[in-house]
Amino acid sequence: MPDVRIAALAVVTSIVLFGTIYSVFNNSYLDTSNPLLTYLPHPLHATDYFADKKNPLNIYFIKQIWAWTTGAFFWHYFTSPRAARTKERVFQYLIATALFLGFTSWFFGPAVLERLIASTGGECVVNLPSGAVVSIPNEYCYTKSTISTATHQSLFPSALVFPESEWFMKPRLRRGHDVSGHIFVLTMSILFLVDQLRTSFASPPPGSIDRANMQWPPSHKWAVLANVLVICLALFATYTTSIYFHTPFEKLTGYLLGVAGFFIIQLPALKPAPEAAVITNRHASSEGEKEDATKES
Protein backbone atom coordinates (compact mmCIF):
# COMPACT_ATOMS: atom_id res chain seq x y z
CA MET A 1 0.00 0.00 0.00
CA PRO A 2 1.52 3.41 -0.97
CA ASP A 3 2.47 5.79 1.84
CA VAL A 4 -0.52 8.06 2.39
CA ARG A 5 1.82 10.83 3.57
CA ILE A 6 3.39 11.01 0.12
CA ALA A 7 -0.07 11.10 -1.46
CA ALA A 8 -1.12 13.93 0.88
CA LEU A 9 2.05 15.87 0.09
CA ALA A 10 1.40 15.43 -3.64
CA VAL A 11 -2.17 16.72 -3.24
CA VAL A 12 -1.13 19.78 -1.22
CA THR A 13 1.67 20.52 -3.68
CA SER A 14 -0.72 20.29 -6.62
CA ILE A 15 -3.25 22.59 -4.97
CA VAL A 16 -0.70 25.27 -4.09
CA LEU A 17 0.90 25.03 -7.54
CA PHE A 18 -2.40 25.20 -9.43
CA GLY A 19 -3.79 28.00 -7.25
CA THR A 20 -0.62 30.05 -7.59
CA ILE A 21 -0.44 29.64 -11.38
CA TYR A 22 -4.15 30.51 -11.64
CA SER A 23 -3.64 33.63 -9.51
CA VAL A 24 -0.80 34.81 -11.75
CA PHE A 25 -2.61 34.31 -15.06
CA ASN A 26 -5.84 35.83 -13.75
CA ASN A 27 -4.22 38.47 -11.53
CA SER A 28 -6.41 37.34 -8.64
CA TYR A 29 -3.91 37.48 -5.78
CA LEU A 30 -3.45 40.34 -3.32
CA ASP A 31 0.01 41.56 -2.29
CA THR A 32 -0.56 41.53 1.47
CA SER A 33 2.85 43.09 2.17
CA ASN A 34 1.84 46.33 0.43
CA PRO A 35 0.59 48.68 3.19
CA LEU A 36 -1.49 50.63 0.70
CA LEU A 37 -3.48 47.49 -0.21
CA THR A 38 -3.51 45.27 2.85
CA TYR A 39 -6.26 47.14 4.72
CA LEU A 40 -8.44 47.51 1.64
CA PRO A 41 -10.99 44.89 0.57
CA HIS A 42 -9.74 42.44 -2.03
CA PRO A 43 -10.48 43.83 -5.50
CA LEU A 44 -12.55 40.70 -6.24
CA HIS A 45 -14.45 40.64 -2.92
CA ALA A 46 -17.73 41.70 -4.55
CA THR A 47 -17.69 38.93 -7.17
CA ASP A 48 -15.63 36.12 -5.62
CA TYR A 49 -17.03 34.99 -2.27
CA PHE A 50 -13.77 33.59 -0.87
CA ALA A 51 -11.82 36.70 -1.86
CA ASP A 52 -13.64 38.49 0.95
CA LYS A 53 -11.50 38.31 4.10
CA LYS A 54 -14.66 38.26 6.20
CA ASN A 55 -15.97 34.98 4.77
CA PRO A 56 -16.71 32.33 7.45
CA LEU A 57 -14.04 29.93 6.15
CA ASN A 58 -11.36 32.52 6.81
CA ILE A 59 -12.66 33.84 10.13
CA TYR A 60 -13.83 30.64 11.82
CA PHE A 61 -11.58 28.00 10.26
CA ILE A 62 -8.33 29.30 8.71
CA LYS A 63 -7.60 31.77 11.50
CA GLN A 64 -8.42 29.07 14.09
CA ILE A 65 -6.84 26.16 12.21
CA TRP A 66 -4.59 24.96 15.02
CA ALA A 67 -7.52 24.83 17.44
CA TRP A 68 -9.38 22.63 14.92
CA THR A 69 -6.25 20.51 14.43
CA THR A 70 -5.79 20.11 18.18
CA GLY A 71 -9.39 19.05 18.72
CA ALA A 72 -9.28 16.57 15.84
CA PHE A 73 -5.98 15.08 17.04
CA PHE A 74 -7.00 14.51 20.66
CA TRP A 75 -10.41 13.11 19.71
CA HIS A 76 -8.67 10.62 17.44
CA TYR A 77 -5.91 9.89 19.97
CA PHE A 78 -8.13 9.17 22.98
CA THR A 79 -10.55 6.99 21.00
CA SER A 80 -7.73 4.94 19.47
CA PRO A 81 -6.89 1.46 20.87
CA ARG A 82 -4.65 1.63 23.92
CA ALA A 83 -1.69 0.24 21.97
CA ALA A 84 -1.99 3.10 19.47
CA ARG A 85 -1.92 5.79 22.17
CA THR A 86 1.85 6.08 22.11
CA LYS A 87 3.98 8.81 23.64
CA GLU A 88 5.59 9.38 20.24
CA ARG A 89 2.27 10.67 18.89
CA VAL A 90 1.99 13.11 21.80
CA PHE A 91 5.56 14.28 21.22
CA GLN A 92 4.72 14.84 17.56
CA TYR A 93 1.75 17.01 18.52
CA LEU A 94 3.83 19.00 21.02
CA ILE A 95 6.54 19.60 18.40
CA ALA A 96 3.90 20.68 15.87
CA THR A 97 2.35 23.07 18.38
CA ALA A 98 5.75 24.51 19.28
CA LEU A 99 6.47 25.09 15.58
CA PHE A 100 3.08 26.74 15.09
CA LEU A 101 3.55 29.04 18.08
CA GLY A 102 7.20 29.76 17.26
CA PHE A 103 6.44 30.74 13.69
CA THR A 104 3.25 32.70 14.29
CA SER A 105 3.20 33.98 17.88
CA TRP A 106 6.45 34.02 19.88
CA PHE A 107 10.00 32.79 19.45
CA PHE A 108 12.10 34.16 22.32
CA GLY A 109 10.64 37.52 21.35
CA PRO A 110 9.07 38.22 17.95
CA ALA A 111 7.69 35.25 16.03
CA VAL A 112 9.84 33.69 13.29
CA LEU A 113 7.56 35.01 10.54
CA GLU A 114 7.81 38.54 11.99
CA ARG A 115 11.60 38.25 12.14
CA LEU A 116 11.63 37.20 8.48
CA ILE A 117 9.57 40.23 7.47
CA ALA A 118 11.79 42.61 9.44
CA SER A 119 15.00 41.06 8.08
CA THR A 120 13.80 41.56 4.51
CA GLY A 121 13.12 45.27 4.86
CA GLY A 122 9.78 45.16 6.64
CA GLU A 123 8.51 48.16 8.60
CA CYS A 124 5.93 48.55 11.34
CA VAL A 125 3.23 50.74 9.84
CA VAL A 126 -0.11 52.24 10.80
CA ASN A 127 -2.80 52.86 8.22
CA LEU A 128 -4.61 56.09 9.05
CA PRO A 129 -8.30 56.65 8.24
CA SER A 130 -7.24 59.18 5.60
CA GLY A 131 -5.34 56.48 3.73
CA ALA A 132 -1.90 57.71 4.77
CA VAL A 133 0.68 55.22 5.99
CA VAL A 134 2.93 56.08 8.92
CA SER A 135 6.02 54.06 9.91
CA ILE A 136 6.67 53.59 13.62
CA PRO A 137 9.30 51.60 15.58
CA ASN A 138 9.05 47.82 15.08
CA GLU A 139 8.67 47.23 18.82
CA TYR A 140 5.05 48.36 18.59
CA CYS A 141 4.35 45.53 16.13
CA TYR A 142 6.32 42.97 18.14
CA THR A 143 4.30 43.75 21.30
CA LYS A 144 0.97 43.89 19.43
CA SER A 145 0.36 47.35 20.89
CA THR A 146 -2.80 49.31 20.13
CA ILE A 147 -1.97 52.76 18.77
CA SER A 148 -4.16 55.85 19.08
CA THR A 149 -3.64 59.59 18.69
CA ALA A 150 -4.55 60.09 22.33
CA THR A 151 -1.95 57.72 23.77
CA HIS A 152 0.81 57.89 21.13
CA GLN A 153 0.53 61.40 19.69
CA SER A 154 4.33 61.74 19.46
CA LEU A 155 4.45 59.00 16.80
CA PHE A 156 2.45 61.00 14.27
CA PRO A 157 3.43 64.14 12.36
CA SER A 158 1.46 67.19 13.51
CA ALA A 159 0.40 67.96 9.94
CA LEU A 160 -1.74 64.83 9.74
CA VAL A 161 -5.50 65.23 10.02
CA PHE A 162 -7.35 62.77 12.23
CA PRO A 163 -11.08 62.14 12.66
CA GLU A 164 -12.77 63.93 15.54
CA SER A 165 -13.98 60.67 17.06
CA GLU A 166 -11.58 58.44 18.99
CA TRP A 167 -9.33 56.47 16.63
CA PHE A 168 -7.11 53.46 17.40
CA MET A 169 -5.49 50.61 15.48
CA LYS A 170 -2.95 47.82 15.83
CA PRO A 171 0.09 48.35 13.59
CA ARG A 172 1.35 45.60 11.30
CA LEU A 173 4.69 44.69 9.74
CA ARG A 174 4.58 45.41 6.02
CA ARG A 175 6.85 45.97 2.97
CA GLY A 176 9.10 42.97 3.68
CA HIS A 177 8.71 39.36 2.55
CA ASP A 178 5.38 38.43 4.15
CA VAL A 179 5.55 34.61 4.22
CA SER A 180 2.07 33.16 3.88
CA GLY A 181 1.39 32.02 7.42
CA HIS A 182 -1.90 30.48 6.33
CA ILE A 183 -0.24 28.28 3.70
CA PHE A 184 2.43 27.33 6.25
CA VAL A 185 0.06 26.19 8.97
CA LEU A 186 -2.50 24.64 6.60
CA THR A 187 0.22 22.53 4.94
CA MET A 188 1.62 21.38 8.26
CA SER A 189 -1.83 20.66 9.69
CA ILE A 190 -2.93 18.57 6.70
CA LEU A 191 0.22 16.44 6.67
CA PHE A 192 0.16 16.03 10.46
CA LEU A 193 -3.47 14.83 10.61
CA VAL A 194 -3.02 12.50 7.62
CA ASP A 195 -0.01 10.98 9.36
CA GLN A 196 -2.01 10.46 12.58
CA LEU A 197 -4.81 8.72 10.70
CA ARG A 198 -2.38 6.03 9.58
CA THR A 199 -2.71 4.41 13.02
CA SER A 200 -6.38 3.70 12.30
CA PHE A 201 -5.76 2.09 8.93
CA ALA A 202 -2.45 0.34 9.63
CA SER A 203 -2.35 -3.40 8.90
CA PRO A 204 -1.77 -5.54 12.01
CA PRO A 205 1.18 -7.94 12.18
CA PRO A 206 0.38 -11.27 10.44
CA GLY A 207 -1.36 -13.71 12.75
CA SER A 208 -1.62 -11.20 15.61
CA ILE A 209 -5.42 -10.76 15.51
CA ASP A 210 -8.45 -11.89 13.58
CA ARG A 211 -8.88 -9.27 10.85
CA ALA A 212 -12.54 -10.22 10.47
CA ASN A 213 -13.19 -8.95 14.00
CA MET A 214 -11.40 -5.63 13.52
CA GLN A 215 -14.01 -2.95 14.13
CA TRP A 216 -13.78 0.64 15.27
CA PRO A 217 -15.98 1.67 18.18
CA PRO A 218 -18.52 4.38 17.26
CA SER A 219 -16.51 7.09 19.03
CA HIS A 220 -13.45 6.31 16.93
CA LYS A 221 -15.48 6.24 13.71
CA TRP A 222 -16.69 9.77 14.46
CA ALA A 223 -13.14 10.83 15.36
CA VAL A 224 -11.79 9.54 12.04
CA LEU A 225 -14.64 11.27 10.20
CA ALA A 226 -13.91 14.54 12.03
CA ASN A 227 -10.23 14.34 11.09
CA VAL A 228 -11.09 13.69 7.44
CA LEU A 229 -13.48 16.65 7.49
CA VAL A 230 -10.83 18.98 8.94
CA ILE A 231 -8.31 17.76 6.33
CA CYS A 232 -10.78 18.36 3.48
CA LEU A 233 -11.63 21.86 4.72
CA ALA A 234 -7.92 22.63 5.11
CA LEU A 235 -7.29 21.49 1.54
CA PHE A 236 -10.07 23.76 0.29
CA ALA A 237 -8.74 26.63 2.42
CA THR A 238 -5.29 26.07 0.89
CA TYR A 239 -6.91 26.36 -2.53
CA THR A 240 -8.70 29.66 -1.78
CA THR A 241 -5.62 31.16 -0.12
CA SER A 242 -3.44 30.17 -3.09
CA ILE A 243 -5.80 31.91 -5.49
CA TYR A 244 -6.62 35.13 -3.64
CA PHE A 245 -3.88 36.08 -1.18
CA HIS A 246 -0.12 36.69 -1.03
CA THR A 247 2.37 36.89 -3.87
CA PRO A 248 3.51 33.66 -5.57
CA PHE A 249 6.88 33.70 -3.78
CA GLU A 250 5.23 34.27 -0.39
CA LYS A 251 2.99 31.25 -0.97
CA LEU A 252 5.97 29.16 -2.06
CA THR A 253 7.95 29.97 1.09
CA GLY A 254 4.90 29.29 3.26
CA TYR A 255 4.48 25.90 1.61
CA LEU A 256 8.18 25.01 1.97
CA LEU A 257 8.17 25.99 5.66
CA GLY A 258 5.05 23.87 6.22
CA VAL A 259 6.70 20.83 4.62
CA ALA A 260 9.91 21.43 6.60
CA GLY A 261 7.84 21.65 9.78
CA PHE A 262 6.21 18.30 9.02
CA PHE A 263 9.61 16.65 8.54
CA ILE A 264 10.62 17.94 11.97
CA ILE A 265 7.40 16.50 13.42
CA GLN A 266 8.41 13.10 12.05
CA LEU A 267 11.58 12.93 14.18
CA PRO A 268 9.99 11.15 17.21
CA ALA A 269 8.64 8.42 14.90
CA LEU A 270 11.99 7.55 13.32
CA LYS A 271 12.90 4.86 15.88
CA PRO A 272 12.15 1.22 14.92
CA ALA A 273 8.58 0.05 15.43
CA PRO A 274 7.99 -2.14 18.53
CA GLU A 275 6.99 -5.13 16.37
CA ALA A 276 10.22 -4.86 14.37
CA ALA A 277 12.23 -4.72 17.58
CA VAL A 278 10.55 -7.86 18.90
CA ILE A 279 11.17 -9.73 15.67
CA THR A 280 14.80 -8.61 15.68
CA ASN A 281 15.30 -9.73 19.26
CA ARG A 282 13.74 -13.10 18.54
CA HIS A 283 15.94 -13.54 15.47
CA ALA A 284 19.03 -12.65 17.49
CA SER A 285 18.04 -15.11 20.23
CA SER A 286 17.49 -17.94 17.74
CA GLU A 287 20.85 -17.24 16.10
CA GLY A 288 22.51 -17.31 19.52
CA GLU A 289 20.86 -20.63 20.36
CA LYS A 290 22.10 -22.10 17.06
CA GLU A 291 25.65 -20.96 17.79
CA ASP A 292 25.54 -22.49 21.28
CA ALA A 293 24.24 -25.77 19.89
CA THR A 294 27.02 -25.82 17.31
CA LYS A 295 29.69 -25.25 19.94
CA GLU A 296 28.30 -28.02 22.18
CA SER A 297 28.24 -30.51 19.30
UniProtKB/TrEMBL annotation:
InterPro entries linked to this entry: FIT
UniProt xrefs under Pfam families: FIT (PF10261)
Primary location recorded for the protein, binned into one broad class: endoplasmic reticulum
Single GO MF annotation: coenzyme A diphosphatase activity
GO BP of this protein: lipid droplet organization; lipid storage; phospholipid biosynthetic process
Keyword terms of this UniProt record: Endoplasmic reticulum, Hydrolase, Lipid metabolism, Membrane, Transmembrane, Transmembrane helix
Name of the molecule in the record: Inositol phospholipid synthesis and fat-storage-inducing TM-domain-containing protein
